[in-house]
């Protein structure tokens, strides 16, 4: 397939995945963005900045190189969070798509500044352990290259805790909100949906039972591994 | 009616009941399944595993015998929770249909690990007492035959407490979520809807009044028995 | 207008008001009923019992006399809550329509067993003071003539507190749910909507500020009286 | 453009912005109003009082002078909150449109009587610091010229705290609800949507983490200033 055609198909997928965000109730106004990478081609496709979902066209998707430099004439400006996506793609080499939202329940947890613990099998089916909440960025990290440093603090969090990005395909950035990722834009969006739902469930679980603890490791393993990896037996 | 026709009609009912789950907001993605049994025919019909509700066809409903063995060539794989359904049908002999969901409010209670008490008449109209929460499965029960053991722990819970399955047509599996049942797939789905709503009501009732207690037995009796049994006078 | 025509129009209004309940999210399944009275004609029109809103027809509305005796041949059975409506009409002589629902937020308060205090002007625009929660019915009141006694305990509550029914057009029945009323079926439904919304607001207000108190009497007066009575100046 | 034509366009914008309120879930029944001012023309256009959104027509929008006196024959009565809008336009001279709602989450905060703190970047993207809650009005302020005094207590709050109205384009009136504003009716409505969403997020954040504090000033600055002012780089 030609480079042009591959990029056209990336634009279409990124466009559709962006539209899915308000449809799923994960994004109000313009508060979200989806991107996809093709490392062989050296190309990232991402939503333009601040364009309303109603008016957005597939042709407006922004094409950049792997450092986030614009590749097309007459391009719109990319999402202001592009630099975060670039860092995630550089460091998380098995991630092909990234989503950022301000979905209500995930933002609540991010604002609370706590990790999201695995209180049940709904969580374990997708996230193989707690979804981490990053530390707060320092003043220096915010003043210069804020969006890049947001990516770096996510990577730092995953490295320090020795988490594989595809085993826990999402993060809560403290005081800000969620990022999720996956093999495809639609899978990364699905992970945003699940993260938001699991945040809601965990929040209310803690209110019903203030002493609730994580499910046991063997139950976490069972549910995660029946859906992922070699021994998976869920689905067709 | 011929065996083939009966099975066709079971497939149609199971298909429609499965579609009802996302319509009622009880299921996101593929997180639910409905089955129906015909004991005379020795047949269970259940949703295929991991098939999206949008793409699902009536012909894809999976037909098994009463032990869960596939009965049709070219069959899709059945829901991974089939073994739980099989145990429930074997032990709860007056149950004709089973539903499993990850509906938001019922999962919260299941994750909290508490029985759902009868705080009002909305509960009493359908559930004749607390909806029990099972104990957590042991490591051994999770490692081998997890889905079958999920069924067994539900049955154990009902036996220990001496509950008749049709008098409390639902359960919370600790750390996991709800199962409900009924005489028909549509009745079992209705019970899932009611269980989720009653979980929501109970959760918030406890927040408004932290010392709330169950309604008195005579009010529970009144509401349950005006809708069920010989002296029922609700409906046409 | 002929007696027949007046009753036809009552049926149409009661039918439309019943349909409005699920549309407004106040009723799931068959959990609600609306009635209207015409005292000159000696007629009450009410929803039939347990008929689904999808299948319900205007011709199925049930016509009774002021004691709740059926007046039409081939009538369906009336709502099982008819006896409650009958008592309210007998004792609250300026009420023309009654609504009962199990709307989520009002049920939470009724289950909690607390009066709904006036924490803001949204409440004061419709309810001229706390919406009372009844006492729990005694065993005797539940065993015999339960629905009639539900009406009586509502009336007892309003009499003891010296509340005029049209000034606080709703009540929470302890452990059960809300009844509301008004001059017309559509106004009574509107009051159900407002009661549910105000229950939601009050519940969350108490969580944000656990020491919140009622708004001052002068603000309650201002908002209630700018919408009701001789000095009202809201609306056209 | 002729005076007539300018007013026609104002009516159309005000009408559309009013319709947007129930569409966005910010208004039930008739509980909201939007207005726009043209200071050169000496004209305010506002929603009529108590007219249902379903029946409302663009021609029914009410035109007044800058003191709120009706300018058109056969005019409907203006929103009862007009006097509040008039004060806000007089004192907040860079505001072109005002919105009042009883949106659920903002009312909860207003009833709680607390300022809405900036717990995250979703807040900081629109509100440059805490959204203030006014003091409660005195008895005298409520008895005479209540709506005008509502405007005055908003202005007092902003003056005392030295807040620029366009930097924090909204307020919570204690025991009542939110007002927001902006350069255009649609922007003012957008600010109502954001205020309600941020109220929801903050409320739940406080429940997850009872010791949560405001985000640091440098993060507030970063997010607010990347969307507003000379150094903004968000959007096209």
TrEMBL record, chains A, B, C, D:
GO molecular function, one term: L-ribulose-phosphate 4-epimerase activity
Residue ranges of every copy of the Class II aldolase/adducin N-terminal domain listed in the record: 12-203
One Gene Ontology biological process: arabinose catabolic process
Keyword Isomerase among UniProt keywords: yes
Cofactor(s) this protein requires: Zn(2+)
Pathway note: Carbohydrate degradation; L-arabinose degradation via L-ribulose; D-xylulose 5-phosphate from L-arabinose (bacterial route): step 3/3
Keywords, sorted A to Z: Arabinose catabolism, Carbohydrate metabolism, Isomerase, Metal-binding, Zinc
Function recorded in the entry: Involved in the degradation of L-arabinose. Catalyzes the interconversion of L-ribulose 5-phosphate (LRu5P) and D-xylulose 5-phosphate (D-Xu5P) via a retroaldol/aldol mechanism (carbon-carbon bond cleavage analogous to a class II aldolase reaction).
Protein name as catalogued: L-ribulose-5-phosphate 4-epimerase
Source organism of the structure: Vagococcus fluvialis bH819
Lineage of the species this protein comes from: Bacteria, Bacillati, Bacillota, Bacilli, Lactobacillales
